[in-house]
Each structure stands twice: as structure tokens, then as C-alpha cells.
Design brief:
Signal peptide: 1-20
CATH class of the domain at 31-242: Mainly Beta
Shape: globular
Structural class: alpha+beta
Subcellular location: Endoplasmic reticulum membrane
Number of strands: 31
Protein name: Aminopeptidase
Distance between the termini: 93 Å
Largest sheet: 8 strands, mixed
Cofactor: Zn(2+)
Pfam family, one: ERAP1_C
């Protein structure tokens, strides 16, 4: 037991230092009690700013047999205010030693813990003086985590059945504190020198290259890594494993390595090639080389590789640790004979995302998690910019709109949050790793790029990165960097891109007004998109040459007052029947009017859906668009058509458009061939019968299913059961054949059954066309024998993409016993990994034979799930929303509220996803009650027309 600190020292410690955040007066009165029963000398979730770290010297010794680790960290500190206490983070670890290394000598430090805030207080019996530097030394010990955060254990099976254990890190957002004592907030940047002790049969990798390896007594080895640049704690990474690696060098001489388990190293070639091309692209686009220069000089005498590692157990898709990006195996490993075009696209995008972070997030970091979108929105946006250039054959633009639609789904609920939003505790921080921060962030950046022009946007981004390298930023810094680009005092004459851009801008150009500083206040525009939640619905009414515009918040609610007080500055774009030239108009007010040069038959706003808003065409507007789509749909781009399909069905939900109008528009889809528009048609139509499944309305449900099959029958029939065509065509083929098979369309079921039987008869060795495997496996999993065969193949396969498709197919089986077995297997983490449980659970919840099983399983295992995946994480939200968001009855809403209402704050009652679930089910109920009669009437009318035509 530690002694109590002197009373005078405690009084000093409770005085609020000028460098700390201004505390709430009421909160300041509260005295927190440490785990030892003594007063804790700090009472805020955020750390004080009296001291800050300059350098960590970190030694770690993981034991992969006993599954624990020990360590010692020496932290060099800069003192900003006189103090007798150092407050930092540590979570679930034993502090074995605590010393102050001062110029006057070594002195012991008293240690107090306050576990609710994950904080340690180190109390010195001498004052630490402002302006001086000190060192503290802390010894610590902990268990390797059995979750996916902190310093955690992972394992895999070899083909012979042997189990191999490794240890890896995942520190974002607040888990570095579970691996070593540290100042675990992004603004506390420091340098790190890391040493790792290991057995000779293992390797150790970290953010930086190894500078030497030292032999220790007992046959152990200690790897010493080079010192990092200044960076945040959440970007520190290290892995101890038996991985192998492959390497290549970029055009600029940067060596990149990809690490994986030995038996899968042959699946790393595509990721390595992709990383090399993407790194070359980013160095050119950002005009800042990698490795990153510091103050005009190379920090390292050799290239520092941004290595990539495939981790067998990994909760998220990937992590951007500086110099050592980590990935799920499915997000990195690619087999050219077994992986699909969708796999190739997904792997390329995720590598693009993590490498973009080496600049956005790592070099320049948000000051606090409220601006997480500066990291994640940018990285998501850069996925599409970079892949479009480096891998044009993937047609990545075909899939960007889907991200905006996904963001709008969450952003249309009352429980949404601003892109830049207040967060304080770890659960709140974890919760904003969501579609709003990632996808909405990317979509509003895309809107801004389109508005100011791609050239101006790129110059502004380069300015932002150069100005704030190795620093922390807020959103305002980005907007400032995109304003007055060619002002003489800001023009960097040594920057070729900047100089050329501004020279060209001085020449007459129709676009110049969109980025001229005197006409465009970027911050005023973008604050309306980042500081308030939701997005606008723009209503358009054409009267002759006059176009009347109005805006309001689009919100799915039965409380209209929640839409009051919202106003955006909206960069509108539009084309008309008279001109395909894109016109622009900045709508700053609630209503406005613009004038066309002549009267037109139709007008389409939000060209290619480059803007993050929806459009309602009042009066005869929708009828004009329906007529256009029925007679000449290719006049509009595929993205324009997809956005019209999206908007018209979403407007039904808020009573702006009648359901029969949306269904009439959907009829044109029978002639649609483009991926984005077809898939958006499915995205709007399929949920209608999924809601009916939950109400036992078999007759109407089957009529809706038949309508959708009839709508796309021609396109399905034209699909070949091969792997021919472009990436978009192949992705669409896989989608259509799977839909046809699931919906029991006879030609699809017959062909899939034939192929599955032949594949099974060959022992699974027959080569199936990759694009048809989802359909084939799904049909095969309908019988007990077929399901068991798939499960056995899943157990032995080393191809991650093939395993993913088998997993989905098995989860869509009608065999309820098998579905339960899958969930139980995933929870145990033996044959199926625990990391796959959320996907298994949500897929089963989409299965009409499994949705009740999934809900029961979620409830029964709730406490285990929140311990393994951690409160507030995106995977917990994914499970909660995924399992419940198709419920459409008051009985199910009551049942959901009963369960979640029984939780405590410690078990998740305050999570945003629970409120989202209530709102979504409520919206489903209102939709069904309001629109089912219209759906029935429209299908009746269509049936009578079809019969009449047949006669």
C-alpha cells in the first residue's frame, strides 16, 4: 500500500494549472477517489497540460507461452507549469516501479490510480519546475488482451492443424494505454524508441527499421528499432510473430514489405504491387516524399518502409500505424485464381486508405477526436481519388455514390451527429468511427473539390500538409488552407504546382470565380456541413424560365420541429434538357430563385450527385423525369440515374412523394445496365419485402419479390456464368446471379445446383468461375449435405476470399440448426474466427429463416460481445443495427426496447446505436402503416395491365 501524500502537496495538486482545460466549476468541486481509497489529484477525463512528453524509450517483453508481457518505459517530459504531479494513462496493468529521473538524482514516485478514467497520478515530493525537462521510469506488467485492442494475442492454424500464437497491437483510439503507460491523447505527440525481447523462432517488427539485435541470457534476442518521428500514441505499433515477408522498391527508392503467416505469403503479391503504385501516386499528389522530411532534411539515412502486415485476428479492416499498417487477412491477401473483382477492389481501396493516412492523420493529426473526420473522411475520399488513377480498370467511381447513400441513411435520423462533434470519454470516441465521420466526410470533401475545382483543391491540400507537418489541427486550419490560394503573401514560389496553378488562374477562365478569395468563403460554406448534423433536401419548382429553390433538413421523424433552424450553403449543380453544360449556383438562403436562358422540358440538379444533398422536384418535375427515363434514360449519367432512384424512394419516407410515383420511376430499370443504377434499384426495392417478412405477409411479400425479379429478368438472363468482362460488369454479374438464386428464379437455381453438384463431386477441386461462386455456394448450402461439405471446405481452405463467400452462403441457409451452429462456432473462435461473428450474425439476421435466431443470440451473449469488441466500437453498432433494422412491428420495437432498456451505462445503455435502432424501427413501422395500401394498389394495377397486355 502506498503512503498518503502530504496535505500541502494535495492542495497544490488540486489547483487548476493555467495550461489545463478550464474545468467546469461544479465538476471541479468533486474529489475523485483512487483505487487505494486516497483522493485522486485530477478530476477530468482529459489530461492536464502541465507536462507533455518529448520522447518514450519503451522496452517490451511479450511471453507467447504464458500470454502476458512486461515492460519498462522511460518518458522524457517537458514541464509547462510548476507542478508536483504527473497525470497520464494506464489501463488494466500493474505498475511495478515508478521513479523520477531528475538532474538532482533518482527519486521514487508515489502512484495513484483512477480506473474509470484509465489514469495514473505520479506524485513527486519535490516540485517539477516550469521550463525544465525530466524523465520518469515506469515498470509495468499485464496480460496480453483476449479482445482485439491494446497489445493482444492472435493465433492461426497451419495446414497440419498446429496452432501458432502471435502478439500484435491495435491502439486507435484509446488503447495504447493498455500496452504501456503514456499520454494517450492525439495532441501529445512525441518520439518513440522501441525495444522488443523475443525468442529466436519469432520476428519482431515495429514502426521503424531494426538498427540492431542483441543476444540476451537464456537464448532470447532483443531487437532495437530506430527512433520514430514525432507522432501520437495511437500510431505506435509492434508485432511479434513467425511471419514471412516479401519486398519491393518504389520508383523513389522506398522499400515496402508485406508480412503474412508463412502458408499465405504467396497471396501477398497483389498487395505489394498495389502499395508500390499507390505510394508513388501519393508522393506526387501531396508533393511531399515518403519517408517524410523534417525541416528540409532527411531524418533517416535510408528509406523507411511503410510496411503492411496481415493479422489473423483483427477487428476493423485495417489500421494506419505510421510505417507499419496492419490489416485483416481478407483486406490484404489476394489469390488471382480464387479472388473476385470485388475482392481486388476492396483490397486496393483499403491499402489506398491506410497509405493516405501516412500524410492525413499521421503527418498532420487532428487535435482531438472531435475532428476525427479530418483523418478518416480524407482517407476515405483519397481511396477514390488514388485508385481512379492507379487502377483505372477497377472503375472505382462506380462505387463512390454508395458511400454517400450509406452516410445519408444514418444522417437522416434524429440521433445523427455533426461531422465535427463533441466527444469526451472512450466510448463516445469509439462511436464516431462511423459512416458520418468516414463516408459523409468523404462526400462533403468530394463536393468541395468539385466546387472549388480539383486543381485548387489539390493546391490547398498540399498547403495544409506542409503548414501543419508533425502538428495537430482543427477543421478551421483546413478551410484556411483552401482560401486565397494565390494571395502574394501565401504563394510558395518554390512550389511548382502552386506557381503553375496561380499563373493559369490569372488567365481568363469560367471556373475562376469558384475559388477566387473575394467571392468564396470556404470556412463559411463548410462550417454549415461540419458543425451541424444532417443534410439538406432541396426542393425545385420550375415555372417557365424561373426555378424556385428552397431548402430544409431531410429527417425521418414524426416530430417536424426537429427540422427547424437548419441552414446550409449548398453548392448546387444542374443540367437541363436544353444544355448538358453543368451550371452552378450557391444556395445560401432558405429560398432563392434562379433563371434559365430558356424554357426546358426537364432539369436535373446535383449532377452526378457530386453534392451531399437530396432533391425533390415539385409540381410536374418528377413526371418529367420519369418520362425522360422511360424514353431516353442514357441522356443522364449512371450516377444521375442512381441518385434519382435513391432520392425518389427516400422522399416517400418523409411524405414528399407518393409511393406509386417512385414505383413508376423504377419501371425504367428494366432497361438499365449500369452497375450503380442497377444496384441502387435493388437497394431501394429489396428492403420493401424485407419489412414484409417481419409481418408474416407472405402473399404481398411474394408479389413484391416477383415484381423485382420481373424487373431485372432480362438483365439476369443476359448474364453468362463465366468470368468475362470488365470489373464493373463482373461485380454486377455476381450480384444479379446471387439475387436470382436467392429469389428462386428457376434458370439461376438450376444452373447453380448443377455447378454445385459437380464441384462437390470433385471434392471441391473443380475450378468454378469466381463470379458465380456466391450463387453456387448459396444454393448448395440449402441441403444438410451441401452445408456440411461447405463447412469442411471452409475449415481447410487457406484462401481468405473463398472462405468469405462460403461464410455468407452458409449463413443464408434455411437450415436453422446450422445457423445456430455457425454463430456458436464464431463465438468460440475455433473454426470460424471471433472477428467474423458480426458478419455472421448480421447475415443470418437478413435470412428470413434466421432473423429471430440472430436477435436471440445477440441478447443471450451481449455481455461477452461487448467485452470482446468493446463498447462503442463500430462492430458493436453494426451488430445492434444490423440485427434489428428490418423490424417493422410495434411488438418487435417493444421487445428491443425492453432488452436495451434493461442495460446499465457500463453495459452499453448510453450507446448512440441503441437510439438509432429505436428510430429506424419506428420509421419502418410508420412506412408500413402509411404505404402498404398504396403498394398493394399499385401491384394490383400493374397486374391488371400485364394481364390486359397478354390478352
Amino acid at each position: 500500500m502506498l503512503d498518503s501524500p502530504p496535505l500541502l502537496l494535495l492542495l497544490l495538486l488540486f489547483a487548476s494549472p493555467s495550461g489545463a482545460q478550464p474545468p467546469n466549476p461544479e465538476q471541479h468541486k468533486e474529489v475523485l477517489i483512487s483505487s487505494s481509497g486516497q483522493p485522486f489529484p485530477w478530476n477530468h477525463m482529459r489530461l492536464p497540460k502541465t507536462v507533455s512528453p518529448l520522447h518514450y524509450d519503451l522496452g517490451i517483453h511479450p511471453n507467447l507461452t504464458t500470454l502476458d508481457f512486461t515492460g519498462v518505459v522511460r518518458i522524457q517530459l517537458q514541464v509547462h507549469e510548476d507542478t508536483g504531479v504527473i497525470v497520464l494513462h494506464a489501463k488494466q496493468m500493474q505498475i511495478t516501479e515508478a521513479l523520477l529521473l531528475a538532474p538532482e538524482g533518482v527519486r521514487p514516485l508515489r502512484v495513484l490510480e483512477y480506473p474509470p478514467f484509465h489514469q495514473l497520478a505520479l506524485l513527486s515530493d519535490t516540485l517539477l519546475t516550469r521550463g525544465r525537462t525530466y524523465e520518469v521510469l515506469l515498470g509495468f506488467a499485464a496480460t496480453l488482451s483476449d479482445s482485439f485492442h491494446g497489445f493482444y494475442r492472435s493465433s492461426y492454424h497451419t495446414s497440419s492443424g498446429a496452432v501458432r500464437v502471435l502478439a500484435s497491437t491495435q491502439f486507435e483510439a484509446t488503447f495504447a494505454r493498455a500496452a504501456f503507460p503514456c499520454f494517450d491523447e492525439p495532441a501529445f505527440k512525441a518520439k518513440f524508441t522501441i525495444r522488443i525481447i523475443r525468442e529466436p523462432r519469432h520476428i519482431a517488427v515495429s514502426n521503424m527499421p531494426t538498427v540492431k539485435t542483441v543476444a540476451l541470457p537464456g537464448g532470447l534476442l532483443e531487437d532495437h528499432f530506430d527512433t520514430t518521428v514525432k507522432m501520437s500514441t495511437y500510431l505506435v505499433a509492434y508485432i511479434v510473430s513467425d511471419f514471412l515477408s516479401v519486398s519491393r522498391t518504389t520508383q523513389r527508392g522506398v522499400k515496402i514489405s508485406v508480412y503474412a503467416v508463412p502458408e499465405k505469403i504467396d497471396q501477398t503479391a497483389f498487395a505489394l504491387d498495389t502499395a508500390v503504385r499507390l505510394l508513388d501516386f501519393y508522393e506526387d499528389y501531396f508533393d511531399i516524399p515518403y519517408p517524410l522530411p523534417k525541416q528540409g532534411q532527411w531524418r533517416y539515412g535510408r528509406s523507411v518502409a511503410p510496411d503492411l502486415a496481415a493479422i489473423p485476428d483483427f477487428q476493423s479492416g485495417a489500421m494506419e500505424n505510421w510505417g507499419l499498417t496492419t490489416y485483416r487477412e481478407t483486406a490484404l491477401l489476394y489469390d488471382p485464381d480464387k479472388s473476385s473483382p470485388s475482392d481486388k477492389l476492396a483490397i486496393t481501396k483499403v491499402i489506398a486508405h491506410e497509405l493516405a493516412h501516412q500524410w492525413f492523420g499521421n503527418l498532420v493529426t487532428m487535435e482531438w477526436w472531435n475532428d476525427l473526420w479530418l483523418n478518416e473522411g480524407f482517407a476515405k475520399f483519397m481511396e477514390f481519388i488514388s485508385v481512379n488513377v492507379t487502377n483505372p480498370e477497377l472503375h472505382v467511381d462506380d462505387f463512390f455514390l454508395g458511400k454517400c447513400f450509406e452516410a445519408m441513411e444514418v444522417d437522416s435520423l434524429p440521433s445523427s451527429h455533426p461531422v465535427s462533434t463533441h466527444v469526451e470519454n472512450p466510448m463516445q470516441i469509439q462511436e464516431i468511427f462511423d459512416d458520418v465521420s468516414y463516408d459523409k466526410g468523404a462526400c462533403i470533401l468530394n463536393m468541395l473539390r468539385d466546387f472549388v475545382t480539383p486543381e485548387a483543391f489539390e493546391i490547398g491540400i498540399i498547403r495544409y500538409l506542409r503548414r501543419f507537418s508533425y502538428q495537430n489541427t482543427v477543421s478551421r486550419h483546413l478551410w484556411e488552407s483552401l482560401t486565397d490560394l494565390c494571395s502574394p503573401d501565401l504563394l510558395d514560389q518554390g512550389d511548382r504546382k502552386h506557381t503553375e496553378f496561380c499563373s493559369a488562374r490569372n488567365r481568363p477562365s469560367g471556373a475562376s470565380k469558384w475559388y477566387s478569395g473575394d467571392e468564396l468563403d470556404v470556412q463559411a460554406i463548410m462550417d454549415t456541413w461540419t458543425l451541424q448534423e444532417g443534410f439538406p433536401l432541396v426542393t425545385v419548382e420550375v415555372r417557365g424560365r424561373e426555378v424556385r429553390l428552397s431548402q430544409e433538413r431531410y429527417l425521418k421523424t414524426d416530430e417536424p420541429s426537429l427540422t427547424d433552424g437548419f441552414l446550409w450553403q449548398i453548392p448546387l449543380t444542374y443540367v437541363t434538357s436544353a444544355s448538358s453544360t453543368i451550371r452552378r449556383f450557391l444556395l445560401k438562403t432558405k429560398t432563392d430563385v434562379l433563371y434559365l436562358p430558356q424554357e426546358v422540358d426537364w432539369v436535373k440538379f446535383n449532377v452526378d450527385m457530386s453534392g451531399y444533398y437530396m432533391v425533390h422536384y415539385e409540381g410536374d418535375g418528377w413526371n418529367a423525369i420519369i418520362n425522360l427515363l422511360q424514353h431516353n434514360h442514357t441522356v443522364l449519367t449512371s450516377n444521375d440515374r442512381a441518385s434519382l432512384v435513391h432520392d425518389v424512394f427516400q422522399l416517400v419516407s418523409v411524405g414528399k412523394v407518393r409511393l406509386d410515383t417512385a414505383l413508376e420511376l423504377s419501371l425504367y430499370l428494366s432497361r438499365e445496365t449500369e452497375t450503380m443504377a442497377v444496384t441502387q434499384g435493388f437497394q431501394e426495392l429489396v428492403p420493401l419485402y424485407k419489412l414484409m417478412e417481419k409481418r408474416d405477409m407472405a402473399a404481398l411479400e411474394n408479389r413484391m419479390k416477383s415484381y423485382i425479379v420481373d424487373l431485372f429478368r432480362g438483365l439476369i438472363d443476359r448474364q453468362e456464368w463465366t468470368d468475362s468482362g470488365s470489373v464493373s460488369e463482373r461485380v454486377l454479374r455476381s450480384y444479379l446471379l446471387l439475387f436470382g438464386s436467392v429469389r428462386n428464379y428457376p434458370p439461376c437455381v438450376e444452373k447453380a445446383t448443377q455447378l454445385f453438384n459437380a464441384w462437390r463431386a470433385s471434392g471441391g477441386h473443380m475450378s468454378l468461375p469466381v463470379d458465380v461462386t456466391m450463387a453456387v455456394f448459396t444454393v448448395g448450402a440449402r441441403t444438410p449435405e451441401g452445408w456440411d461439405f461447405l463447412f469442411e471446405r471452409y475449415r481447410t481452405s487457406l484462401q481468405m476470399s473463398v472462405k468469405s463467400r462460403m461464410k455468407v452462403a452458409m449463413a443464408f441457409s434455411p437450415l436453422q440448426g446450422k445457423l445456430t451452429r455457425m454463430m456458436e462456432q464464431s463465438l468460440r473462435g475455433e473454426v470460424m474466427k471471433l472477428q467474423d461473428l458480426p458478419d455472421v450474425l448480421v447475415t443470418i439476421s437478413r435470412n428470413p429463416h434466421g432473423y429471430k435466431l440472430a436477435w436471440d443470440f445477440l441478447r443471450a451473449n451481449w455481455h461477452t460481445l461487448i467485452k470482446k469488441f468493446d463498447l462503442g466500437t463500430s462492430l458493436v453498432a453494426y451488430m445492434v443495427n444490423g440485427v434489428t433494422n428490418q423490424y417493422s412491428t410495434t411488438e418487435m420495437l417493444d421487445e428491443v426496447k425492453l432488452f436495451f432498456g434493461s442495460l446499465t451505462e457500463e453495459t452499453g445503455s448510453e450507446m448512440r446505436c441503441i437510439q438509432q435502432t429505436y428510430e429506424t424501427i419506428g420509421d419502418n413501422i410508420r412506412w408500413m402503416d402509411a404505404h402498404l395500401p398504396h403498394l398493394q394498389a399499385w401491384l394490383d394495377k400493374r397486374s391488371s395491365h400485364t394481364v390486359h397486355e397478354d390478352l
